[in-house]
Amino acid sequence: xxxILYTYIAEENHDYLIKKYLHQFPKNFxxxxxxxxxxxxxxxxxxxxxxxxxxxxKMNKEYQNEMLSYTSFDKPFFSTNKTKFNISHxxxxxxxxxxxxxxxxxxxxxxxEINIHDFEAQxxxxxxxxxxIPENKKAAFFDFWTQKEAVIKSHGKGLSIPLKSxxxxxYQAKIKEECFFLKEIFLDEKYKCHLAFKDEVDAIILGPNLxxxxxxx
Length: 217
What we know:
Helix content is about 30%, strand content about 30%. It contains six helices and eleven strands. It has helices at about 15-20, 25-35, 40-60, 125-130, 135-155, 215, and strands spanning about 1-10, 70, 75-80, 85-90, 95-100, 105-110, 170, 170-175, 180-185, 190-195, 205-210. A five-stranded antiparallel β-sheet has the order 6-10-9-8-7, with helices on one face. A four-stranded mixed β-sheet has the order 4-5-1-11, covered by helices on one side. Helix 1 packs across helix 3 (about 40-60) and helix 2 (about 25-35) runs antiparallel to helix 3 (about 40-60).
């Protein structure tokens, strides 16, 4: 099963979060957080790790910040824990997906004003034609974008896989011989979010659950 957790950032909580939690993490992560110029970026990154910690506790899994390792494609993983996870953030939301059995990818995007035509080169011809049909093309685009991003995050090689090299159809995609299944996750009407996983059996989703600051304590 897969657990989905999310929370919102808030400027009034920033100093408290930094003072209470940052020292618990490895030195390199602390330095990364302190290099952010915007408090929003620092808090989104920190809350992502705190959601991961909270989720593991809910699964009765031992958690140590030093356990995080990274693949050659910079995807974090646990070297001594079989739990799979992925974190995404956009706007004021950060979301974390955890699975005991399956590689997962999650992507959230705030629905913002964009020029959709700037992204035509990232789509297959069929995807572009499908995007031109709906009346609300902006919402349709962010559905498309979060689906594709979630798939490449689940795959594990990130943007080294061109978005145009595979196609999402009926909430499914295939990269070479690997199949991926997608599920829309509703968090907030101002956002689009999709979860991708490799095994359709793993489609039982717990959540999404809004995590409040006092629950992280």
